[in-house]
Amino acid sequence: MTREQQKALSFYRRIRISLGLMGILPFLLVVYLFLTEKISLTNSVVLYSALILFSILIGFSLLRQSADQLSMLARETATLEKSETVKPVHLHIDGELQDIATNFNALVDRLTRANHDIQEQNIQLLRYADDLAHSYDQLKKEEQLRTHLSRYIGNDLIEQIMQSNDDTLLQKNHRKVITVMFADIRSFTAISEQMEPKDVVAMLNEYFSIMVAIVFKHNGMLDKFVGDQLMAVFGHMSDKARGVEDGLLAALEMQEAADQLMKKRAKNRQPTFLVGIGMNTGHAIIGNVGSENRMDYTVIGDTVNAGARFETLAKGGEIIIGEQTSILRPRSIKLNKRLKLKVKNRSMPVVCYMVDRKGCMDTLQRPENSTHHLPGSLIDAVHEEVPASC
Questions:
Q1: pTM of the model
Q2: Structural domain tally of the chain?
């Protein structure tokens, strides 16, 4: 038996004992008076005794009724602790006891509404928790995607991808007109043989850090490093004309940065080198290529192969571009030589052009209103060269 139940039983006993004493004590008093005072049983005494007894019985009945109502109210309100659900009390009782029941019902109503509000808040909190968990998962996926994309492209392009809400943009396999660039250190083998391995690695890291930053600056995608060669792609997320402009501006800035780097290395009495750059524009397949264990997001096709051959034709400090690149180039990019390149499996030589770096110094800052040549005006100055083989 619980402590609360013991208290309830004690309350009921006190009520019964009180009523019993109220009913018995007056009779005992009358008997005592008759025995001690030797009162004679006259009609008046009998009448008064009957009136007193009747009054006592009426009072006892009224008190018993009130006590029963009070006990009933106590039992009904005891459900507040015994039951998980609290229900209002519906009793037919008198006066102040009815006020107590009314106040109790008002309290029950407030508790019910408070419990309902708490349940709604709990549901809302669960929804918030689900939203937070979903947001955390999204942020985690976004951070993983940023880390993955940072290997290939700059922060500006990463932000464009994030804002487009297309996290598969660099995972789709498709065909597109792109501009591919190859940049290679001339006579790297001869230079590296005269250097300590740690110095070779330090030189390449310094060089690639500068070149990659320029590629990213001009919306390019780093494809791969092959020894001392850098391969980058432009126009993979823009139209072909913009891709050509980005690639050419990047190539010009890379050659200028390479010149500045060589001045710094010469001042520090470190080995110097020159960079040859080849570029080509055309259709290529963009997608993930590799094995199950290793995949690379890259470009493949004849356009890429031709761009690699143009790079082998470029001497240190030169930029050689394909015919489509020259057609789509901005008007501010000047050309000074027209070359013909014999390519295997092709009956006709491939036409390519050398960029006039000196005539393009003003274009290192992107023109605000770039216009492009139509196919009828390919170059500003044309010089035929002896065909070269590749």
A1: 0.59
A2: 2
Q: Using one digit for the tens of pLDDT, what is the confidence trace for 119-138?
A: 899 999 999 998 888 888 88
Distances (CA, A) of 287 to 6, 206, 384: 81, 29, 38
| Structural domain containing residue 266 | 171-389
Q: Would 341 be classed as within a structural domain?
A: yes
Give pLDDT tens digits for 185-197.
Answer: 999 999 999 999 9
Q: Side-chain half-sphere of 238: how many Cα atoms within 13 Å?
A: 18
Q: Which amino acid is at 80?
A: L
CA nearest 258: which of 238, 274, 241, 240? 274
Q: CB-side exposure of 96: number of CA atoms within 13 Å?
A: 3
Out of 83, 108, 127, a domain closes at 83
Whether residues 228 and 356 fall in one domain? yes
Rounded to whole angstroms, the Cα distance separating 175 from 299 reads 9
Tell me if 279 sits within 8 A of 181, measured CB to CB: yes
Residue 355 lies in a domain: yes
Q: Which of 83, 101, 136 is the last residue of a domain?
A: 83
Give the CA angle between residues 207, 209, 211 to the nearest 5°: 70
